[in-house]
Known about the structure:
This protein is α/β, with parallel strands linked by helices. The protein is 34% helix and 24% strand.
Amino acid sequence: MTVQPSLETRDLTIRFGGHVAVNAVSCAFHPGELTVIVGPNGAGKTTYFNLISGQLAASQGQVIKSGTDLTRMSPSARAQRGIGRAFQLTNLFPQLSVLENIRLAVQARSGDGWRILRQVAGLTDLAEQAEHYLEAAKLSGVAHLPAAALPHGDQRKLEVALLMAMEPDIYMFDEPTAGMSLDHAPDVLDLIAGIKKDTSKTVLLVEHKMDVVRSLADRIIVLHNGELLADGAPDTVMSSDIVRDVYLGKSAVPA
Ligand SMILES: Nc1ncnc2c1ncn2[C@@H]1O[C@H](COP(=O)(O)OP(=O)(O)OP(=O)(O)O)[C@@H](O)[C@H]1O
């Protein structure tokens, strides 16, 4: 039996003037799978994310979620359909406390009737749910601090906690441990590993750090010059000559 992909891009393309930043990328993602997207600087990884979450409009091609075409939908319409991309804290409520921010995220989801699959079965009270995410992100000690006052590492953890509170079924992380100290990075990686255990979720992760890639990836796709260069099991992809050549900076894209 063929399982329907939870997310699919078909021939997805965007051009900026004459430059094709994402070039006809067709790829399907499935629940219970964490895919890491790798590639050299400027390969198109963040642009691919922007096309999926709706921050950029495709020049060509489609974004399909569980059979629904999202390509012409706004970012918020996609979010309501379960596409979850980590928030930028600057877009939230920096003067409100960590706990209040999480409560708002829980409320936003509940108020919309936006219930994909309840991650916290049995917790009916919104405050209890907020506490749950606060503890999961190991932020209880700073629950009452304004979000803006958090050190960078805690802000990144809060981003993940807020995303979890929205209970999307597609999680998208763009370098989630960027700029974090070695003390904090494991907390964020543990959170992502926890999400990955839920087989109803699909996780996409853009990452440069190879130790992170190795610890989390079920599958790796490689973008290069906007094109899908490789796709497969981590060991196979990372040991392929093409991928090695790309990382060594040689021109190795097959003709
Ligand atoms: N809004 C834009 N206008 C013009 N060009 C853009 C725009 N956004 C991205 N690009 C170009 O598209 C290409 C892909 O950029 P993108 O940021 O997606 O790469 P990346 O793989 O995420 O790189 P990095 O690893 O450095 O973050 C780059 O050449 C970039 O300059």
